Amino acid sequence: MGETQQGFGVLAAVCAYLLWGFLPLYWKLLGGVPASDILAHRIVWSLVFMLAVILVTGMFKGVWREIKNTFSSKKTALAITAASILISVNWFIFIFAVNSDRVIEASLGYYINPLINVTLAAVLLKEKLSKAETAAFGLAAAGVVMLTVYYGYVPWAALGLALSFGFYGLIKKITPVGAWAGLTIETMLMTPFALLFLVIWKDNSGGFSSYAGSDILLLMGAGAATAVPLLLFAAGAKRITFSLMGFLQYGAPTIMLLLGVFLFEEPFSHQQLISFLIVWAGLILFTWSRAGTARRNRKPSVKKAK
Predict the structure, then answer these.
(1) Which end of the chain is more exposed for a tag (fewer CB within 10 A), N or C?
(2) Is residue 75 part of a domain?
(3) Which has the closest alpha carbon to 133: 145, 120, 146, 144?
(4) Average pLDDT over residues 175-193
């Protein structure tokens, strides 16, 4: 792969994680709107945005062909349906967490997500975990247990975000559907339920007329706020190494954590800091292990090239 392509991949990935990191700022602007309403609008306007971009860029035929191929297989159709439910659950938990002053907890969810991913792969795909990766998971689990004791309840938002996105990623890994078709299908499947909620349920409380003018524009913009980072992520993942992608992904939860502590002024005690430090130690160990594996995998190919 050329340096230009790799450079574009790094830029796309960095932009994706920056957008995800600062996304709480967007949802905070909609603090007066219930999380269920935001989710419904997010789904509908994401589909509208995807269809508009696909039509404008001339990709409609190719994407439509891929959508038809996806539903021609019962197994693939069930998998993408499950993925659409999981990503909707993930979106709802994140919006709810942000607008209920749990941005720090949300950041924890995305910190532990890589460890959840490899654990799910080990359990369900029978991929082997190295000793370092097992130790990393143990450290992260210890950090979560410490937070559970500190909070007095299980940090369900963090675990819900990590598990929903972990299972979503697992399904996407084993399902041969491209990024454009995938996001279009996922929002298309959930849009009827979102519209049903907005038209029947919310219509009784005033529908769109119950929102402020700025809220209406922000709800419509939720489609672009959702789709753009996902598409940038897909573009980056195709062009750069898995290890580099793994390193860059910690940018988003770090930004969320800083926003939660310094901008939103959520409580962050010494006990929480110690718990996060333990989780970070696990992430450092995990990243080191993955980077070593990537280096070892590259060596044979270098020798062959010689």
Answers:
(1) C
(2) yes
(3) 120
(4) 93
* 203 DSSP 8-state letter: G
Q: Is 222 exposed, middle or buried (0-12, 13-18, 19+ CB in 10 A)?
A: buried
Q: What is the mean pLDDT of residues 12-40?
A: 94
**Tens digits of per-residue pLDDT, 167-183?**
998 898 888 888 899 99
Cα gap 113→106, rounded to integer Å:
11
* Domain of 239, in residue numbers: 3-293
* pLDDT score of 226: 94
Q: Are the C-beta atoms of residues 35 and 99 closer than 8 Å to each other?
A: yes
- Among 281, 294, 291, 271, residue whose Cα is nearest residue 135: 281
How many C-beta atoms surround the C-beta of residue 21 within 10 A? 22
Tokens 């993925």 sit on residue? 83
Q: For residue 166, which of 227, 119, 98, 103 has the smallest C-alpha distance?
A: 119
DSSP-H helix ranges across the chain: 3-28, 35-56, 60-72, 74-99, 103-124, 131-151, 156-174, 179-196, 213-239, 242-248, 251-258, 270-305
On whether residue 140 sits in a domain, the answer given is: yes
> Using an 8 Å Cβ cutoff, are 53 and 226 in contact?
no
Which residues have CB under 8 Å from 48's CB, separation 6+? Answer: 223
pLDDT in tens, 30-61: 998 999 999 999 999 999 999 999 999 999 99
Distance CA 205, CA 83 (A): 31
Tokens of 26: 């967007």
Q: Is residue 267 part of a domain?
A: yes
The DSSP 8-state label assigned to residue 1 in this structure reads -
Lowest mean per-residue pLDDT among 10-19, 102-111, 276-285, 287-296: 287-296
Tally of structural domains, the chain: 1
